[in-house]
Amino acid sequence: MSQFDSDRDLSRLIALPFQRDEVESPASEGALVLGGPGSLTLPDEIGRSSTTVVQGFRPAFNAWVSRNFTTIPEISRLDKEDRFGIVIVCLSRHRRWNEIMLADAAKRCAEGGVVIAAGSKSDGAGAIRKMLSEMLESELSSLPKHHGMVMWFRVDEQARVALKAMGERPPTRASEKFVTAPGGFSANRIDDGSLLLVEHLPLDLSGSLADFCAGWGYLAVEAAKRCEGLSSLDLFEADWSSLEAARSNLRSADRPAEFHWLDLANERVEGRFDVIVMNPPFHIGRAAEPAIGATLIERASSALKPSGQLFLVANRQLPYETVLDRFFARNSILAETKSYKVFQASAQASAHRR
């Protein structure tokens, strides 16, 4: 195998320090796992009953819960005094999110406990190791293997202080007006596809609006600003941190807003809406998965009122026309650029009415 297989290779990397007797079982203090994918296999030395998982991505959160692990969506849900003998950080592609997780790991690790961080070389694990080696006075051990790298260090006051400073940098923003979520979609700027969709939303939209895959709330904010007839907003998002950013961005909204942490592909949407806006994802990690968008279009068709309308932006190469034809009686292209298409669809096809 020539590439990093995220869940399998990550599990093998995390096990290496235990297999080499470099790290012992956390005993009574238990373990904390930050950012672990739902199918991650933990080393035998880490017991389920004494392990807490922090996972803000709803599908992975649900997977951990189904395996009977204590699972929370954000680290602030822990008691203030909770400390763990081992903290495992599953590194992501996003450096800022990795920095925040490492700062949280040092804070929540017991004195003399161990932080283990692992991830793919192609996602920057080597750069994280270099950064830690420059920041820490305590010994940093590491092993490159399985197309990735695992590193570990014992936590003392110097490590805690150094990593705390790194974690307290200002929040990420897409502009002066919008707070975003580190590691989330379009964290540093407003997405071009979303800009195009907003530009072509009819100003006379009215009734209830749902934003599917809402991210940090840009589409909902702009729709509310432009369309005076909208009476309520419902935002659906799988990433907890992004949804919390959306709450912040919609604090000044002049109409009711509800926020739903939901895996739209696998969990039921309650309620029916007059309008749904959507800029759906089409990747899992680095791999393109257009089927995600197709599933979300189907979900949108069943979440609309009979007279409801869907407004969707997608990369122009994605074959969503056939999916729209299957689930809607009418659809058309409102705008098209070299990169994106904006679709309008209405009137659910009769075979799919709910």
From TrEMBL:
Please report the stretch or stretches of sequence annotated as the Methyltransferase small domain: 177-344
Alphabetically list the UniProt keywords. Answer: Cytoplasm, Methyltransferase, rRNA processing, S-adenosyl-L-methionine, Transferase
One annotated GO biological process: methylation
Against InterPro entries, the record matches this protein to: DNA_methylase_N6_adenine_CS, RsmC/RlmG, SAM-dependent_MTases_sf, Small_mtfrase_dom
The record ties this protein, via CDD domains, to: AdoMet_MTases
The record, for PANTHER family, names:
RIBOSOMAL RNA SMALL SUBUNIT METHYLTRANSFERASE C (PTHR47816:SF4)
Keyword presence, Ubl conjugation: no
Q: What is this protein called?
A: Class I SAM-dependent methyltransferase
Q: Does the keyword rRNA processing apply?
A: yes
Recorded GO molecular functions are: N-methyltransferase activity; nucleic acid binding; S-adenosylmethionine-dependent methyltransferase activity
